Amino acid sequence: MQVLQQMLIFVLIMIIGAAARKKQILTPDNQAQITQLVLSIAYPAIILSGVTGDGPHIAGAELAYAFGVILVMLAMLMVSAFLIPRLLGYGRAEKGIVNVMVVFTNIGFMGVPMIDALYGKDALIYMTVLLIPFNLLFFSYVIQTIKGGGEKTPFRWMSLVNPGMISCVLAVILYVADIRLPYVLTAAIRMVGSMTGPLAMMLLGSFLLDTDWKTLINKKIIAFTVIKMMLLPIAVTLILKQFVSNVYLLAVCMAALATPSGNVIPLLAALYNKEGYPVSVQGVAVTTAAAVVTMPIAAMAVGL
């Protein structure tokens, strides 16, 4: 019920974003700038806000256990991502796109605000633990996977030096060392971080309004959405639930599994795989629209 209420709140904010796009308050030009504001400032701030409070800290061994659980979850996700495009009969150029859409979800725009709203700041340390391997995975092989075996691009370690990754590493250092920041700095970080949810949802609403839905819906994308947004999150979370009792950790894993495909994927597909670009737009648009219904259903199915 809480997930449904939170999704309805997100929907209302997305409607505001769609209205802003219709009134030309949000435009293709300033959408890119606001996206950068979210990814480079607000999103890192909400990550840091999860470790700046006075809540209870988890021990080093429990932190390591959480990291291990998340690695297992990511491994299951990557195996599923390899199988799903083959199961659905996607062509060679599209397989890499579908693979990436399964693994790399809109965790920053939707998952982090969702966990913050439902479980509070104490749960965000588990999200931080997730985001470190998630970002490493994204920047290490996503472009090669999208290309689907085409021209090779050398991996550059400097690609990992970005505000999101820096905030994750800094958050872990602050948390493990139990460093308490001054109240003024903590309050400022939390206030900036609180912009993440509203801005991200308005951007998603604007994106959905710009979408030509008549060209998107087909049997394959519907099947993909059902598998990616419902069957996979429910199956993997139920498996993890047999071994994990920590609700925060399970909720973070669920958020990584059940959030829509990341809206950065079409941008990368336009650069590196133009043949597969239409599938990337279909997947991101349809999974984002479906999330309003599928996330509450998946959460209720696994008892979160």
Give structural attributes.
single chain, 304 residues, mainly alpha
Summarize the structure.
The chain has 13 helices and no strands. The chain has 304 residues and is an all-alpha fold.
Describe the overall structure.
Helix 5 (107-119) crosses helix 9 (196-209). With 304 residues, this protein is mostly helical. It contains 13 helices and no strands. The termini are close together.
Architecture blueprint of SSEs:
Blueprint: H1 2-22, H2 28-49, H3 60-87, H4 92-103, H5 107-119, H6 124-147, H7 163-176, H8 183-193, H9 196-209, H10 219-241, H11 247-258, H12 265-272, H13 277-301
Helix pairs in contact: 1-9, 1-13, 2-5, 2-7, 2-8, 2-9, 3-4, 3-6, 3-10, 4-6, 4-13, 5-9, 5-11, 6-7, 6-11, 10-11, 10-13, 12-13
- Tell me the β content: under 5%
Report how far apart the termini are.
9 Å
Principal-axes shape call: globular
| Topology pattern, helix = H, strand = E | HHHHHHHHHHHHH
Class from helix and strand fractions: mainly alpha
- Averaged pLDDT: 80
Identify the quaternary structure here.
Answer: single chain
For the biggest sheet, the summary is:
none
The number of distinct helices, counting runs of at least 4 residues, comes to 13
Alpha carbon gyration radius: 18 Å
The tally of strands reads: 0
What share of residues is helical? Answer: over 70%
In terms of per-residue confidence, which ranges show pLDDT below 50 for 5 or more consecutive residues?
none
